[in-house]
Amino acid sequence: MSGAPEFPTPHRRFNPLTGSWVLVSAHRTERPWLGETENVTDEPRLQRDPACYLCPGSTRANGAQNPDYTDTFVFTNDYPALLPEPEPKSDEASPLFRAERQAGTCRVICFSPRHDLTLAELDSEGLLRVIDLWADQTAELGQDYRWVQVFENKGEAMGASNPHPHGQIWAGTSLPSLIEAEDRAQEEYAATHGGPMLLDYARAEHEEATRVVCENEEWIVVVPYWAVWPFETLIIPRRPARRMPDLDDDQRRGLAGALQSLLSRYDGIFDTPFPYSMGWHGAPFQDGPTDHWQLHAHAYPPLLRSATVRKFMVGYELLAESQRDLTPEAAAARLRDMSETRDG
Hints:
The protein has helices at residues 124-142, 177-193, 197-208, 249-269, 316-319, 328-336; strands at residues 11-15, 20-24, 73-76, 104-110, 147-154, 166-172, 212-215, 219-222, 233-237, 276-281, 296-300, 322-324. By secondary structure, the protein is of the alpha+beta class.
């Protein structure tokens, strides 16, 4: 079965990247909603907020002062989750109480000096500068760390405490659990089928078309067949690229265009700056073959029914397996119907 089932009854779909399943229950969107809603504000946005610790020239919470930057800006997180030389307690004598040393670093990337912009509102050149920075930081940190995670949390619904356009990079000596699963699945697929899984998947989605949100000569953006979040998307280069630094000029410009199209469509769904977590997965920096890898980004927006009603991962999702209330095909159709430019 290459596409969606012909009937809207509950069914499970397999995620070949992680080996997990998701329950699809499209009829559940018809139920009434009396639960929590998100706040939506129309407060005016300042180009520069003197109270924002990410704006140019501002003093951060630890007393450090930002330069008067006019482009992108990177600094080491003042309150990092990873440290260069941690000292965890370890008890290797018991299989029930294991720990391992995890050294690393965390950085903050400001996408723009403008406090009132989002990644969706940057022009092509602004997006290119962010993409180049993602690539440069990945290459630099990959010299010392096995895994480099580039990501952005946008909006209060995704835990972003500061609206200034920014993202993060965490780099560590160990492979995170999800990356281990993706690494294993892609390696097994390549050994069986003779090439990277996600290149084959990108070609198959292009031919199927029902889950494609947007595409250009270099990139394809789809709501994946196995999507968990309502308007989740997968962003894949159409030519081989294992890591962000591998992207050539054409691929980087194509990515800028794909991001503009996707993020504008996101904002159009409920006519609101769309919250999401988005991050990049590329080949780990390690000894051994990585030819089975294809660079890709996951975008996980939580909103389901409106600008104020989100999807919660609770109950069955926490205790059994993931479940979604909207078919990926329906979500992709909604996104395709949106304008790919900010001005409509």
